[in-house]
Amino acid sequence: MAMDGPKQLLMALCAAAAVGVTSVIFVLIWVFNYKEGLAWDGGLAEFNWHPVLIVFGFIAVQGFAIIVYRLPWTWKWNKQVMKFIHAGLHLLAFILVVISLVAVFDFHNYAKIPNMYSLHSWLGLMAVILFSQQLVIGVCLYLLPVLPVFWRAAFMPIHVYSGLLLFTSVIAVALMGITEKLIFGLSNPKYKDSPPEAIFVNVLGLLLVLFGALILWIATRTSWKRPSDQNLHILHTNGGGEDNTKRGTALSQLSDQSDVALGDVNKSD
Amino acid sequence: MAMDGPKQLLMALCAAAAVGVTSVIFVLIWVFNYKEGLAWDGGLAEFNWHPVLIVFGFIAVQGFAIIVYRLPWTWKWNKQVMKFIHAGLHLLAFILVVISLVAVFDFHNYAKIPNMYSLHSWLGLMAVILFSQQLVIGVCLYLLPVLPVFWRAAFMPIHVYSGLLLFTSVIAVALMGITEKLIFGLSNPKYKDSPPEAIFVNVLGLLLVLFGALILWIATRTSWKRPSDQNLHILHTNGGGEDNTKRGTALSQLSDQSDVALGDVNKSD
Questions:
Q1: Minimum Cα–Cα distance from B108: chain A residue
Q2: Hey, where are the domains in chain A?
Q3: CATH architecture observed for domain B6-226
Q4: pLDDT tens, B140-157?
Q5: Does the CB of B3 have a partner CB in chain A at under 8 Å?
Q6: Which of A35, A38, A137, B197 gives 20 to 30 Å between its CA and that of B61?
């Protein structure tokens, strides 16, 4: 049951790519085939930029940005180049999300629909704000040569956790958005009458969950990390476990190993 | 920045307990103060068992079932006892979820509302079915002394991943359910007019996300594992990393170390 061998990594990457691309195709078919298409006119066609840019930018692009270090053919590339791609894709996602928010606020204002009343809007705006903070902190910590390596290493588990939590939250918020749009957007037949559009967009929701599950699986397999990062992880896990049993702080673990970690992080820089 | 020391574990456990209990109080206030209370009459008061049992059973109980191995005062207890508590709490969660599903199907049938048309219902039923499979597979693999230790160890990363993914999905599905209920249940003033109930239940949604974030943080800190499990993890990660660099399969790692892992798993049994 070799679930995390190199063949399985390639299969998982292909599956994630297939499901991600299919999700984007699905949201485009939804908008062009079932809805008003795309425009920037203050109407429903402007609103439609919201689901399109969220599925493309905040889900597909962010998903691939997360696992960009897991592409085996890049493992010989310079780590700094990979960091720029990782940050650049996240920046692209952020720009697309901001445009998608402008579209929905514009539409609401034209149609005299209140903004920010729903749980979808609350969680969505929180996700965007936290995403922008994650981006700024990530660039300051890992791209700019400002902070000492100790802080870079100490913050990495939080960076990874926050990134995966934000990605997961964005998919949850998208599912709430799909629910809202199908309830408000379908009348005669309604959502509860299961017209073709309802079934089609429900399937889009399933695809987004599957995409999220694949990205989370790929991102959390230790043996699929870049070989150099893997060694760093082993050192940390080793130290963490022993220290915790003996002395109980991760800080001491990190400071004990700061010279080792320093060498490794510098090398990967 | 000792984010994963023992003091931080206690703080995180207290925070999770506080947010979990508050969420259950919130759903009860929603149902009794803003809604029709609880009854088993085919009407809205029967429907209300659905959110109450989902928040209590499928979110709070499942959340604590997941992190039951992270309670430091149980680290001296027999591992087998902890496994029974882990499985027993999951079984309790499953029973409560089944009752909550009966309540909602009953209500729909009385009110002639179609079943299973929404993305919420699709993902929710999938989560319940996969949860029951996870429970059966978990009991067969880790409680019954049937399968060889090799399989127990090989399946553990999938067991952990599936469990956390299901827990996360359940929260996402609950947020969609809250969205549906606030849209359908509020009229004059509507959801978009932000009456007190809308604000209150939006806050419940935020609490559920916060609870999920805390449980995921606690569950994924390696240094917060039971000391015996931690040693097992270190062995696996070590082997996985080295093997992956050299030979590239996790299977070989597991078979190489099966005697070591066997000793450790047996000890913890």
A1: A192
A2: 6-226, 227-269
A3: Up-down Bundle (1.20)
A4: 999 998 889 999 999 999
A5: yes
A6: B197
